[in-house]
Amino acid sequence: MKNIPANSYARWRAALAAPALAEGGGPPERLLQAVWQHQRLRRDSLRTLDGRKLRVLHPGFWNHAAGPDFRGAVIQFDGDAPRSGDVEVDIAPAGWRGHAHRDNPEYRNVILHVVWDAAETSTGLPTLALRTALDSPPDELSVWLDTGAERDLPEAFAGKCSAPLKELSPELLKDLLNQAALVRLQTKADWLQARARDAGWEQALWEGLFRALGYKQNAWPMQRLGELLPALGRQEPLPRNNPLAWQGRLFGVGGLLPDELGRKTSETDRYVRAVWDCWWREREPFGEVILPRGVWRFNGLRPANHPQRRLALAAHWLAAGNLIARLENWFTNETNETEPAADSLLKILLAGADDFWPRHWTLRAAPMAKPQPLLGTTRVTDLAVNVLLPWFWIRAVAGRNAALRQRAERLYFAWPCAEDNAVLRLARQRLLGGAGRRLLATAAAQQGLMQIVRDFCERSNAVCTDCHFPELARNFGVQAANQGT
Ligand code: SF4
């Protein structure tokens, strides 16, 4: 073995690393973000470009969605009180203007701009240059980054509640999450009931469904369209089973129809022409309520969640004329127990025959190679846990019908888990030490975790200042032990 160098493996590993932090051109932004997240910095001697001493109490949480790179950092300048806010990472100070962050309201809470290298900045933001602050030479960091070590989040990212939560048995933790989930169900139900007092139960449900179809980006314009439904149907009732006419009306009032009609004869041109044929006569009577196109947000939107596609689905529900009756039948009919509730609900919510939308994500998109249904199981889960089950639950509560209330709860707590999302991923890391995925096997457990984030994390900060949840979780465990559960 004496001919084999003792550092073979170390050399192989070093060779794996691209010159990620090469001097000169600067590293890719993603690598700077990893350096910031893991604080691979000489943390005792950080100074901003204007000479202020910088102490990082928490680097914040990496935001993989639109907006600043890190949310909720806690930092301190000189001897000032700690500040909580966002951190944006760019290669150079010019990125702040170049990426139009300056005028974007999403960036108004940025308290620190982190760049690779600069001597000065004109952004007006406190700025830290990383190049001279790294804790290791760029080549070493390059190896660390390129071999994936940065993916292991440090212990410091765990919240203060993660230790007491870890001490709970799986049954107790499930019980705690379900209790929080019930609070969430009730909060959603209260909103529906408040709306029903003014507008009636059916209208409250339509508004809830429309709002849910908007997802977080377009909840408000969708809700507005939901609120307009009585006027949209009353002014000139549309014939039943004519989804195209409803699509024309919803796209038109939503301000989502292209102004120009194409001269080509593509499938899209033919469809848009057919929709315009429905809408052009109605444009004037509905002129006052047409939404400006600017109220919609399209950035960072998945094609499946585009409002045109979601309204196309809603048009089918409205055209069928019996959606609510079918939903009530689904909920009350015990024979549904033979089939998973999510499957039977999907059958009801799936649109009827549509020539255009199964093959197009939006009015501009090229035709899809393979048709896609207008609704899938994950969206059905969103609609069930956020709107339908809260609506059935509160109606049962209002009508003092204990059997139906229990049925709504039974369905809610057994509903299979929804799609993972950024809030859940972060919450699993902070609250459940990253080991909670199997505990979140139901949509209710996910809802419970999100409720804890809403009630506690959002009122505290990244270092869990003044959060009572760890103590409450600890007491929950002690109480259960005293009662022998
Ligand atoms: S803020 Fe509270 S609930 Fe959130 S992670 Fe910290 S201790 Fe847990």
Structural overview:
There is one protein chain. With 485 residues, the chain is of the alpha/beta class. Among the domains are: 8-156; 200-381, no CATH class. The protein contains 18 helices and 6 strands. Strands 1, 2, 3, 4, 5 and 6 form a 6-stranded mixed β-sheet that branches. Strand 2 (61-62) and strand 3 form a beta hairpin. Helix 12 packs antiparallel against helix 13 (341-349). The longest helix has 30 residues, at 170-199. It is globular and about 80 Å long. The mean pLDDT is 87. The structure holds iron/sulfur cluster. Residues 159-161, 430-431, 452, 456-457, 460, 464, 467, 469-470 line the site of iron/sulfur cluster.
Q: What's the topology here?
A:
Elements lengths: L7 H9 L12 H10 L15 E5 L2 E2 L7 E8 L5 E7 L5 H4 L11 E6 L11 E3 L8 H9 L15 H6 L2 H30 L1 H13 L1 H20 L8 H11 L13 H13 L27 H14 L2 H10 L8 H9 L27 H22 L3 H13 L7 H10 L11 H13 L13 H14 L3
Parallel strand pairs: 4-5, 5-6
Antiparallel strand pairs: 1-3, 2-3, 3-4
Helix pairs in contact: 6-7, 6-14, 6-17, 7-8, 7-14, 9-10, 9-11, 12-13, 13-14, 14-15, 16-17
The structure holds iron/sulfur cluster (SF4).
The site of iron/sulfur cluster (SF4) has 13 residues, from helix 16 and helix 18.
